[in-house]
Amino acid sequence: NAGVTQTPKFQVLKTGQSMTLQCAQDMNHNSMYWYRQDPGMGLRLIYYSASEGTTDKGEVPNGYNVSRLNKREFSLRLESAAPSQTSVYFCASSETVWGYGYTFGSGTRLTVV
Amino acid sequence: GDSVTQMEGPVTLSEEAFLTINCTYTATGYPSLFWYVQYPGEGLQLLLKATKADDKGSNKGFEATYRKETTSFHLEKGSVQVSDSAVYFCALSVQNQGGKLIFGQGTELSVKP
Fold it and tell me: Which H/E stretch holds residue A23?
């Protein structure tokens, strides 16, 4: 089925460890996004890529890096995980056309101990 | 800056009751407006959208009307079902900002039989 695929679905890290969250879409969308979801705070944008070859910071970029590997793939890296990064992470993609919504992946639940 | 404010949850209703979830927004440009739904353990799914003033978005019995004069996009359903239990997110995107979505904090709905 067409859509956005995220891996892994669950991950437990120790403080200071690093990891990369993977995201791939097969809808030929231009734009891709990483959000984090925390209780009572909705979704907050971490980074986004409006088109292949570009990335920009969102609302909460500190502690994260991203790579737009090609049009399909957009990865999120935590270089030195902290307990404050315990969250559910969602990747999404969209056409870069005003008025179109997003297609979301099913999320990665990350716990940093 | 641009923002979305939703009524706080949780909202608990009996089956077949009428649902309203309030959403108001602040935007510097002319936004498109969206409602997303998140079922337990899943990612967000687009429920409905409206791209200009007085447009009504509808899907699965849910409706919302874009009210520019009151900067609102309230979600309504005439008769809720247990299967409607989920978290509902109001969101906006503004032209020429990479299609970025800005989300409200989410409203949890619980429908009891």
Answer: strand A19-25
Rounded distance, CA B80 to CA A10, Å? 32
Contact A48, A55 (CB under 8 A): yes
Query: What's the CA angle centered on A22, arms A3 and B43, to 5 degrees?
Result: 45
CB of A7 less than 8 A from some CB of B:
no
For residues B102 and A4, give the distance between their C-alpha atoms in angstroms, rounded to a whole number: 19
DSSP-derived letter for residue B65 is: E
How confident is the model over A80-106, as pLDDT tens digits?
999 999 999 999 998 865 557 789 999
What backbone torsions phi and psi does residue A83 show, to the nearest 5 degrees?
A: -55, -30
For B16-49, write each residue's pLDDT tens digit.
999 999 999 999 888 999 999 999 888 899 999 9
At A28, list the tokens.
Answer: 């030929």
Question: B99, A54 in Cβ contact below 8 A?
Answer: no
Contacts A25 to B, Cβ<8 Å:
none
Best residue of A102, A103, A104 to probe chain B, by most B CBs closer than 10 Å:
A102
